[in-house]
Design brief:
- The two termini are 19 Å apart.
- The chain has 15 helices and eleven strands.
- By secondary structure, the protein is α/β, with parallel strands linked by helices.
- It is globular, with a radius of gyration of 21 Å.
- The protein has a domain of 310 residues: Amidase signature (AS) enzymes (Alpha-Beta Complex), CATH 3.90.1300.
- The structure holds glutamine.
- Glutamine (GLN) binds next to loops.
- Glutamine binds next to loops.
């Protein structure tokens, strides 16, 4: 029998339907692979008992001919999603051994459709980071290494565990969240597909909040089709999240293979950065050529406020984070460090519980929201955000269907290599992705080539609000032209 962990999600679905193997066999194959790959540190908690129970239940529904959309499909869950009875930490010490009494809406929909949870995946602490190095559980390793090198590389972040697990065949797909690039950047760094849906498409209920006006959940998988399959289950209206949008969820998979003939694709001139590597430039031009060959029309577009996106994001996101994280006070959740009085208990708990990056964000956020600085920083950043959104609206109003950009300014970098002396160095990773969150738009990252050291590189497609279908159609064109990459297996 072929290695069940190397199947695509769509192939596994077919194999289960044909009864070529059982959901339990599929789950066991993944659990065995996870055990051998612990050096990657992708999972912070493995849940084999639940997984086997869910797999057996899925086998029963398949036998009865009542299989759900994802019956028996083993998935990993970013540790930012609350899971009933299963430890959820946001990879922060402050949540300690927090065990939720409730399930996030997104994961509950996956289980409703018959998926199997293999475990909880590592991420940056409270999803703040671009390399998965801020996690209280330590860094995640990228399954990819440079040719001829055994240097450990980061998988990107904040959903680094999700990306690494999918790329290393430790699950068929995974959930992630994206506030400024945390699905698209790690997908690009690990040679897989990741999509951040339109803001409001997936419920945020039960997902640990970072910056509520930017946070969106989305799927990772090894093919565009597989992400489309997962998204259908994850998306949908939820009365428990007032920002979730009440509109029907399309069958995204139907968009795969649809012609892109006549579509107008914008190439934003402001995304051509000074000093950008020639390889990224070449990749971008190659992607444009592939879309053109498939019948799309390429047009140069302008998004003039792009250069303000990163600074504005690093005001808005920390501001919201400082407010959201005020709830971790040692009273209601997780860890507590006592003091002589309640104020000292708060201080001790928060000082011990939050890591340095999270503390930095809380301080920046509190500063930009404080009297006297509010207008100069927070209000100004909000105005910039409106202008960024308008840039995109103007481009789409001219008939552009989607925008093509690089996903990241570089390939994966070494563990410990960036952001030590200057945090801005790390923040620059999100230069191509944060604009999309600021505007609330959908964005997909698709593998498109390799750099000269053999590391995967990705392209990003940005769509109109709620037009994920177009991104799946265009992403499929790039994927077909690129082919599939697999990392050399050194970890097992
Ligand atoms: N890297 C960005 C940050 O640190 C984005 C993180 C995210 O999307 N969750 O804020």
């Amino acid at each position: 029998m072929t290695d069940l962990t190397s199947l695509t999600l769509a192939d596994a679905r077919e194999g289960l339907a044909q009864k070529s193997f059982t959901a339990l066999e599929l789950t066991d194959a993944h659990l065995a692979a996870m055990e051998k790959a612990r050096v990657l540190n992708a999972y912070v908690l493995e849940t084999p008992e639940q997984a086997r129970a869910q797999a057996k239940a899925a086998d029963a529904t398949i036998a009865r001919g009542e299989a759900g959309l994802l019956a028996g499909i083993p998935l990993g869950v970013k540790d930012l999603f609350a899971t009933t009875g299963v430890r959820t930490t946001a990879c922060s010490k402050i949540l300690g051994n927090f065990i939720p009494q409730y399930e996030s809406t997104v994961t509950s929909q996956l289980w409703r459709d018959g998926a199997v949870m293999l475990g909880k995946l590592n991420c940056d602490e409270f999803a703040m980071g671009s390399s998965n190095e801020t996690s209280a559980f330590g860094p995640v390793l990228n399954p990819w290494r440079r040719e001829g090198s055994d240097l450990d590389l980061v998988p990107g972040g904040s959903s680094g565990g999700s990306a690494s697990a999918v790329a290393a065949n430790l699950c068929l797909g995974a959930t992630g969240t994206d506030t400024g690039g945390s699905i698209r950047q790690p997908a690009a760094f690990t040679g897989i597909v990741g999509i951040k849906p339109t803001y409001g498409r997936c419920s945020r209920w039960g997902t640990v909040a970072f910056a509520s006006s930017l946070d969106q959940a989305g799927p990772f998988a090894r093919t565009v089709r597989d992400t489309a399959i997962l998204m259908r289950s994850m998306a949908g209206h939820d009365p428990k999240d007032t920002t979730s949008v009440d509109r029907p969820v399309p069958d995204y998979e139907a968009a795969i293979g649809k012609s892109v003939k006549g579509m107008k694709i914008g190439i934003p001139k402001e995304y051509r950065l000074d000093g950008m590597s020639g390889e990224i430039d070449k990749l971008w031009a190659q992607g444009a050529d592939w879309l053109k060959a498939a019948g799309a029309e390429l047009v140069e577009v302008s998004l003039p406020h792009t250069k303000y996106a990163l600074p504005a994001y690093y005001v808005v996101a920390p501001a919201e984070a400082s407010s959201n994280l005020a709830r971790y006070d040692g009273v209601r959740y997780g860890a507590r460090v006592n003091g002589r009085n309640i104020a000292e208990m708060y201080e001790n708990t928060r000082a011990a519980g939050f890591g340095p990056e999270v503390r930095r964000r809380i301080m920046i956020g509190t500063y930009v929201l404080s009297a006297g600085y509010y207008d100069a920083y927070y209000l100004r950043a909000q105005k910039v955000r409106t202008l960024i959104k308008k840039d995109f609206e103007d481009v789409f109003a001219k008939g552009v269907h989607a925008i093509l950009t690089p996903a990241t300014p570089s390939a994966a970098f070494g563990v410990g290599e960036k952001g030590k002396a200057d945090p801005i160095e790390m923040y620059l990773n999100d230069i191509f992705t944060v604009t999309v969150n600021m505007a609330g738009l959908p964005g997909i990252a698709v593998p498109a080539g390799k750099d000269k050291q053999g590391l995967p590189l990705g392209l990003q497609l940005i769509g109109r609000p709620f037009d994920e279908d177009t991104l799946f159609s265009l992403g499929e064109v790039i994927e077909q032209a690129t082919g599939h990459f697999t990392a050399r297996k050194w970890w097992a």
